[in-house]
Every structure is written in structure tokens, then in C-alpha cells.
Design brief:
The structure holds two protein chains of two kinds.
Chain A (H helix, E strand, L loop, with lengths): L4 E8 L8 E8 L6 H10 L27 E4 L2 E4 L12 E4 L6 E3 L2 E2 L2 H9 L21 H11 L6 H5 L12 H11 L8 H7 L14 H5 L6 H22 L1
Parallel strand pairs in A: 1-5
Antiparallel strand pairs in A: 1-2, 3-4, 3-5, 6-7
Chain B lengths: L6 E4 L3 H12 L4 E5 L15 E2 L11 H11 L6 H20 L14 E2 L9 E2 L5 H18 L3 E5 L1 E8 L5 E8 L5 E5 L2 E4 L20 H8 L4 E2 L4 E8 L6 E2 L3 H4 L3 E5 L16 E2 L1 H5 L9 H14 L10 E4 L5 H19 L8 E10 L2 E2 L27 E3 L17 H21 L10 H19 L7 H15 L6 H18 L13 H25 L25 H17 L1 E6 L6 E6 L15
Parallel strand pairs in B: 1-2, 1-10, 2-6, 10-19
Antiparallel strand pairs in B: 3-5, 4-5, 7-8, 8-9, 11-18, 11-20, 12-13, 12-17, 14-15, 14-16, 16-17, 20-21
Helix pairs in contact in B: 1-4, 1-10, 2-3, 3-10, 5-14, 12-13, 12-14, 13-14
The chains are: A alpha+beta, B alpha+beta.
């Protein structure tokens, strides 16, 4: 770095209805910064590149270990966690934008409630009789099955896969890739599988699995390398079988 | 009570989520408040595992041994009946997690596996790869979502807890909270309130904690009259990597899985660590503590690292760094057991922990202290009564606390993998207790006069208005940095009274300056600077509780270490030796004086510190901790 500066270009928006605008920021270079730690510096020194004092940029973050999912945003056009985006690895000026597939709340903060609503819709849980001890474990699960399930269980609802998916739009009904991983996960639990028809029906109608365009962008951007396309393929089979079963039940 | 009861839970880590589940199971509706979607809570950062005795490793492990390890690990400073009950409940809780679908790592036979953790000799820790906290959090989150589907839980996510609403008798009747989107203040009625608001790591500036773990909520109820216990007991984790923004935890599982801690024997050795031969490496934990080696408890490891770096000048490159080395293990083994942690190290450092050692140093990691909570002893079993309104109730009637923000279980230090356990267990107990409490109420919150809610709302709005319209000069973020530097300088791994006096003086100055803050953000939506300005004031209040407790406690116990008052184990001497017996007599005398729980009460001019006895009815101390 010749100029010993870190440069940012941030897409800002004062509120859901307000028009977006771009603002440039610079800060002194120091090694080891990530995008969030740099934003923290700018928050303490809220001054744009023209030297004007401005309202500090707002964004979401919490764990700073790429495990809570809060700080997902577009960084140089790529959806990813800002805490794990090291400044030294990024081309400058670093361009920050809110995820475009969710409503902007302010600046880089977006409303991802739709993802949590989807978890409700697909019944992403293993039903239990109660939280009390029944003096039994879950049925046995092979180490191999566990290691496959573990891949899916690390989804942190960050929204990167939704951002990358061409079928998922603010005004489309498509449920998006992330929820499929959770159907796959819960359907493979020995007792969770008792309720597979409920979860499969939730992804069989409009906006469900058949709306997937097979672009495979989701799996490319997932920060946890979750095999989303494997889940979608597997659920394609499961929903087909369910569809045939439904014919006979009727 | 004439009306149907309702409970408010604040905080959605495993503690708050378990409380919520238990309350709903008793057919009482819950309003669940959180700063962010509960799935993003700090529980997700817990890596290593959860302790529960299943005795599946041929080691004759027992629940009694878990109780003993927890009591001794905490240097006897925690009330023991709750510890007994927690350890007894642990296997049942972990079985429930298993039934909820947690992806616990498995043995070849398909049952959950158990690994070794620090401070114990048996493999007792159930784990899900290296993201156990995330997995347990998600399981609890999913169950609460199922309750939500049934209409029994209403979530208020992106809301900040500001205060409890108290009636004329000082009973908690609800809360005031701020909507973090439009920054408006609202009050909510409830017949009981449970705080599950987590740790206070941000008081130390950078720590292993999430950016929202400020302790502000606990501080707010402390300032409203809840007593705060054992504030000075803060765990410093021996293996964290440095960063501008955070000191990222490298799980204790790294040591449990055979990680070795070392420094080059030659000060200032500049060689690539991989080229330093075994004979020139100083494995100081293995040399000093042969019985436990690298798995000594966290406080012992942290102080040993301080000793080699600060006193012996052996820090790597002359810096605050020691090596944590796993590179002797095959890659496949490490990927399966610790992949998530090692990948994180690689992501944030740019260096490969599979082929060379990691650079680490102690960091603030956990607060054993917290809101003082009660328990109802069961004289029959020696544990606590499983359902009783006294359990986990604070000194404010109707206000409960669970998880890291309470003060139970861990005493002067916490064992690894006991925090996911205590958060789960205390959430369950606090949930049950809150319902039992509402059943005993003559008048519910619906009967409380409106004026209590109106005046609390006005008070909170005035605080916001004063900050927004302030023309002060102090920057709230700069104040936080200064607070962190002060705490890390004087209230850290090694403490002395001179330094603690400086810390107290510095904290008072920061408090005075925090009255002259300005908020740079002038927006009325998502004003994070306003939130932070409020939180830093509350952090400064708790910082003083921590520093004053530390200043007054003239001894070494668990995580609290003052060299001046250290009772040194005579080297090479064991029980029976007269020298050792003299040491033991001094240790007994010290316990007479200091084996007491610190209780802080808020006052305008700073905390008032008292002490109360510890319930030692399960295992009274007969000999000092000895990890040699």
C-alpha cells in the first residue's frame, strides 16, 4: 500500500423509503483489519472522504467469528460476512452495499425476517414430547450420517445464498435455497423423519422446490460450504415420492 | 391472581430460550425480547462442548466427580446445592438436546461421543464438531419457533431492554424497552421478568465475546437495586488470537485434543517455529504441571503464559504471544475434531494451523460473577428444589436471572464446557421458578397502576433526549476504548492494589466524562450510536463493581490473582510434609477470611461491597487445589 489508506465506497440509505446514495470514506491503513473492524473505526470518526462530518454508517454484527450470520453484506459485489472479509485481501476502494434481496432498514442493515418466516413455514424442528428428560437418547445415528447432517446444521441464516440466487427476489414467492438445507437436515433425523410429509408439503407448492432454476450460485457463495445443491437434489427425489404417495392416499 | 399470568424473557441465547420453552410448557405465554434475531446470540460462539456424565469411556466417571470438579474448579466460591443439582441434571439435559436433533459427534456405535476438557481427568464433554454452542442454540431456537407456531411466544427482536418497571413495593411488574428501528421507548407488563442477557466482555474492550455482550442489561437492573455478586471473578481464557476488533477464542478443545503450548527457549528466537527442534522448545505447562500438562484449568494456564511472557521475557518475537501447537496431528483428525476452529484461525490470521503453531495469548472470556440469585435448598437431597420461586430470583422480587448474567455455579472460576450446561440448566430452572412465582402472586401486573409504567417510560425518554441534544465533547466509542485499555492494564490476569487504585480512579474519571457525551448520529432510525452511548455508561458502572471487588479482595482465588497475597505451594512437598502442612494451615486461615461471596449494592458514589457466606454443605474444602 503506497498511500497507506483504506478506502471505502458505501451505498447508503436513510430508511426503507429513502433513495440510496453513495458516500466515500478513507481511514489510515493498519494491517489485520477486516471490514467490520474498519467500520468500527469509521463509526468513531464519522467523517467522509471530503472531510464532512456525517451520520456514521450503520450495519449489523455480533459474533465476529463468522458464525452468527449477522454481518452479511455485499463486499465488492460478493455476498459474504463482513467480519471475515480481510481488508488486506480486498481490492480498493472497498465497495459496501446492503444485500439487495431484502428490504433495507438503513444503510447496510437489511430485514431478513423472511428467512425466519420460512423456517416457521417448513417446520424446521424435530418435534419432542417435552423438554423434560425421558431417560432415553435419540435413536442411534451413524458417524457417517452425523457428519452429513453436521454440514447442514451450520446454516446461520445469513442470506448470502438467497442474495446469489437468481430465482429469489423481493417480489417473488420462491422460498430460496437456505430453507431447503433445513428440510434436508430435519428429514434425516431418526425421529424428525416422522414428520417428513409436513416439511415436504411446505416446499411442494408455489414458491417451492420446483421454482429452483438450478443456477447453483447458492453453493458458490455459502460461507459455510453447505452442500445446498445436494440438499435440493435429494429433496427433489423426496418430494416426487411424496407426490406419488399423496396420489394413493387421496 | 385474577388474570392469566405472562412472563417476559430478555435475551435469546440458550438460557433465555430454555426459560421460554419451560414457561410455555406450563401454559404461560412469553414475550421474548432480544437485541437481534435470537438465532444470532452469543451462545453460537461456544465451541468445545457441554459437560454431562455418561461414563462411556471406561474411566469410571461419576456425577459425583463432576460435582467435585465443578466445586474445586470454582475454588469453593459457589453455593454448592445448585452445583449438585446441575450436575445431576446434566445427562438428562444433554439427552433432551440429542432428541431435539443436535448433531453431536458420534462414536462408531452411533451414540454421542465425549471428549476431554481442561480441569478434569475424564472424557465428559459431549460435542458437535467445534460448534457445539451454535448447535445447541439452534436446537433451542427451533423448539421456540415451534412454540411460536402455536402462538405461545411473541418475539420482540431488535428491541433493547432498558429497565424493569417497579411498583411502590419495589416488585418487578414489567419492563421498558426501546425499538431499535425507530428508537421509540415502550413499556410492557409482565408478572415475572427473566434476564438472560449474557456476559460483559466488552467492559474489557476487546474480549472473546460478541459485540453485543456489554453487560448493560445486568448493569441497568443493578442500578435499579438488584445486587451483583462476585464481579471481580472474570475468566481469562488462555488461548485467544489477537485482532483489532476481537480476541477470537481458540477453543479449549485444542488443548483437550492434544494441543501443546510452548515458547522458544531462547528469548527473541526469530526462526520459523517449524524449524525449532523439540529440544529448544519450552513446553512450560507440561514441565510445570506434569499431572495435567496442557489441560490444566484456564486460570493456571493463563497465569503460566503471563509468567513466561511478562516475567521470563520468552514471548514469541518479544510480544504477548505463545504458541498453541496442533501440527503434530494428522490433518484428517484435526479437520474432523477441530475443523471449524482451525478454519477460523486461518480465515482471520491468514496462517495455516494444520502445519504450524497458532499464536495466542489470554483474553477476557467469561464472567463468573453476575446478578445475585437465590435458590431453595432441598434438605433431603442436598441439592436445590427443582421448582421453587426462590430459584434464580434476584434481590428484586419478580426479577429472575439465568445464564452468564447470573452469579451461580462457577464461583471463582468456571470449568470448560460447564457454561453451556449452566446456561441450559439455569434457563430451565428460572423458567420453572418464574411460573411458580406468578402462581403465588395475589395481584398481577394488570393490577399495577399505569403511573409506574408512564413514569418509567418518561424517565427513559428523557435519557435518550438528553443524549441526542447534548452538545458534549466526549465520543462514546473512544470512551469504550479507554475503558478497555484501563481494565486490561490493571484488572487483568495479574492484579495488584496499586494498579487497582489507578483503575478505580480512571473509572471515576470516565464516569464523569461520560456525562458529557455527544451522539454523532442525528438520525431517528437505527441509531446505533445512541444505543452505544447508553450502554457505555452502564458498562462503566459495572467496571467499577469489578475493579472495587478486586481491590478489596486481598487473596488469590480462582481467576483472581494478586501476587502479593499468593500462598505458594512449597515446591516438591506434598501432604504429610511439615512444610506442606504449614502451607495448608495458612490456606485454611485465608479461607476463614475470604471464602465469602462478594455482594455489591449500587449507590450514587459507587458500589457498596459486603460479603456473605457460601453454602458449602456438599463438599467443604479440606485441602488446597493442586494441579501439579
Amino acid at each position: 500500500m503506497a498511500d497507506r489508506e483504506i478506502q471505502f465506497n458505501v451505498k447508503r440509505q436513510d430508511g426503507p423509503e429513502a433513495a440510496p446514495y453513495w458516500e466515500e470514506f478513507t481511514m489510515p491503513y493498519s494491517s489485520g483489519h477486516n471490514v467490520v473492524s474498519a467500520l468500527m473505526y469509521l463509526r468513531e470518526h464519522p467523517c467522509n472522504a471530503n472531510g464532512e462530518t456525517v451520520n456514521p454508517v450503520v450495519w449489523d454484527c455480533n459474533c465476529m467469528e463468522e458464525v452468527c450470520g449477522a454481518c452479511a453484506m455485499l463486499i465488492n459485489g460478493v455476498p459474504r460476512q463482513a467480519c471475515a472479509a480481510l481488508v488486506d485481501d480486498l481490492e480498493q476502494p472497498i465497495v459496501l452495499e446492503p444485500l439487495s434481496k431484502f428490504p433495507v432498514v438503513r444503510d447496510l442493515v437489511v430485514d431478513r425476517q423472511r428467512m425466519f418466516d420460512a423456517l416457521l413455514k417448513i417446520k424446521a424442528w424435530v418435534p419432542v414430547d417435552g423438554s423434560w428428560d425421558i431417560h432415553r437418547h435419540a435413536p442411534l445415528i451413524s458417524p457417517n450420517e452425523q457428519s452429513i447432517r453436521y454440514l447442514f446444521s451450520r446454516c446461520m441464516t445469513c442470506g448470502c445464498c438467497m442474495e446469489a440466487c437468481p430465482q429469489f427476489q423481493q417480489d417473488s414467492k420462491f422460498i430460496g435455497p437456505a430453507p431447503f438445507a433445513q428440510v434436508r437436515l430435519h428429514n434425516s433425523h431418526p425421529t424428525g423423519s416422522f414428520f417428513n410429509p409436513d416439511r415436504l408439503h411446505a416446499i411442494m407448492g408455489e414458491g417451492g422446490i420446483t421454482d429452483c432454476g438450478n443456477a447453483q450460485n447458492c453453493v458458490e457463495v455459502c460461507p459455510k460450504d453447505i452442500p445446498l445443491t445436494d440438499a435440493i437434489a435429494e429433496l427433489g427425489r423426496q418430494t416426487t415420492i411424496q407426490w406419488i404417495r399423496d396420489l394413493f392416499v387421496r | 391472581m385474577a388474570t392469566k399470568p405472562k412472563v417476559i424473557v430478555v435475551g435469546g441465547g440458550v438460557g433465555g430460550l430454555w426459560a421460554t420453552i419451560r414457561i410455555v410448557e406450563r401454559n404461560v405465554p412469553v414475550d421474548l425480547f432480544s437485541l437481534f434475531p435470537v438465532k444470532r446470540s452469543h451462545t453460537c460462539c461456544a465451541q468445545g462442548g457441554i459437560n454431562a456424565v455418561f461414563d462411556i469411556k471406561g474411566q469410571e466417571d461419576s456425577v459425583w466427580q463432576h460435582i467435585v470438579d465443578t466445586i474445586k474448579g470454582g475454588d469453593y466460591l459457589a453455593d454448592q446445592p445448585p452445583i449438585r443439582s446441575m450436575c445431576e441434571a446434566a445427562p438428562g439435559l444433554v439427552r433432551t438436546y440429542d432428541r431435539m436433533g443436535v448433531t453431536f459427534s458420534r462414536t462408531p456405535e452411533g451414540i454421542m461421543d465425549q471428549r476431554l476438557f481442561g480441569g478434569v481427568k475424564n472424557r465428559r464433554t459431549a460435542f458437535a464438531g467445534a460448534t457445539t454452542g451454535q448447535q445447541l442454540l439452534y436446537a433451542a431456537d427451533e423448539q421456540v419457533r415451534a412454540c411460536e407456531a402455536d402462538g405461545k411466544v411473541t418475539k420482540y427482536e431488535e428491541w433493547e431492554f432498558l429497565s424493569v418497571v417497579l411498583d411502590d413495593k419495589g416488585t418487578c411488574r414489567g419492563i421498558a424497552a426501546m425499538n431499535l428501528n425507530d428508537m421509540t421507548v415502550h413499556t410492557f407488563r409482565a408478572d415475572a421478568v427473566i434476564l438472560a442477557t449474557g456476559g460483559l466482555g466488552l467492559i474489557f474492550g476487546r474480549s472473546t465475546m460478541s459485540t453485543n455482550s456489554t453487560g448493560a442489561a445486568a448493569s441497568r437492573v443493578y442500578q435499579q437495586g438488584a445486587k451483583f455478586a462476585n464481579g471481580e471473578f472474570v475468566q481469562f481464557h488462555p488461548t485467544a488470537m489477537k485482532g483489532h476488533d476481537k480476541l477470537r477464542l481458540m477453543s479449549e478443545a485444542c488443548r483437550g485434543e492434544g494441543g501443546r503450548i510452548w515458547v522458544p527457549r531462547t528469548p527473541g528466537d526469530t526462526r520459523d517455529p517449524r524449524e525449532i527442534p523439540e529440544s529448544e522448545r519450552f513446553y512450560f505447562l507440561e514441565e510445570w504441571y506434569p499431572a495435567y500438562g496442557n489441560t490444566v484449568p484456564r486460570d493456571v494456564a493463563s497465569r503460566a503464559e503471563f509468567r513466561v511472557v511478562r516475567h521470563m521475557g520468552l514471548g514469541v518475537g518479544g510480544q504477548d504471544i505463545v504458541y498453541l501447537d496442533l501440527s503434530h496431528h494428522p490433518r484428517a483428525f484435526l479437520e474432523a475434531r477441530l475443523g471449524a476452529i482451525l478454519d477460523m484461525y486461518r480465515t482471520f490470521s491468514g496462517e495455516d494451523p494444520y502445519t504450524g503453531p497458532m499464536k495466542i495469548f489470554p483474553a477476557m472470556h467469561y464472567s463468573m460473577g453476575g446478578i445475585l440469585v437465590g435458590f431453595a435448598k432441598d434438605e433431603q437431597t442436598g441439592g436445590m428444589q427443582s421448582i421453587h420461586p426462590d430459584n434464580h430470583q434476584s434481590t428484586i422480587a419478580g426479577l429472575f436471572a439465568c445464564g452468564e448474567c447470573d452469579s451461580a455455579f462457577h464461583g471463582a472460576n468456571r470449568l470448560g464446557a460447564n457454561s453451556l450446561l449452566s446456561a441450559t440448566y439455569s434457563g430451565m430452572i428460572a423458567g420453572d421458578a418464574s411460573v411458580a412465582y406468578t402462581k403465588g402472586l395475589k395481584n398481577g401486573s394488570a393490577d399495577t397502576a399505569d403511573r409506574h409504567f408512564e413514569s418509567e417510560k418518561n424517565r427513559q425518554e428523557e435519557i435518550n433526549q438528553a443524549l441526542i441534544s447534548s452538545d458534549g465533547t466526549e465520543n462514546p466509542f473512544a470512551l469504550h476504548r479507554e475503558l478497555g485499555e484501563l481494565m486490561q492494564e490493571h484488572v487483568f490476569v495479574e492484579r495488584d492494589n496499586k494498579g487497582l487504585d489507578k483503575a478505580l480512579e480512571g473509572i471515576r474519571q470516565l464516569r464523569a466524562r461520560s456525562a458529557r457525551m455527544r451522539v454523532d448520529d442525528k438520525a431517528t432510525r437505527v441509531n446505533q450510536s445512541l444505543s452505544w452511548a447508553r450502554q457505555i455508561q452502564d458498562m462503566i458502572v459495572l467496571a467499577e463493581v469489578i475493579a472495587k471487588g478486586a481491590r478489596m479482595r486481598d487473596e488469590c482465588r480462582g481467576s483472581h490473582y494478586k501476587a502479593e497475597f499468593e500462598l505458594k505451594i512449597p515446591e516438591g512437598k506434598f501432604e504429610g510434609d511439615p512444610e506442606f502442612e504449614r502451607y495448608k494451615a495458612k490456606w485454611k486461615a485465608n479461607n476463614e477470611k475470604w471464602l465469602k461471596i462478594t455482594v455489591a449494592t449500587h449507590a450514587k458514589d459507587g458500589p457498596k461491597i459486603d460479603y456473605r457466606p457460601v453454602d458449602l454443605s456438599v463438599l467443604a474444602p479440606t485441602k488446597p487445589r493442586d494441579y501439579r
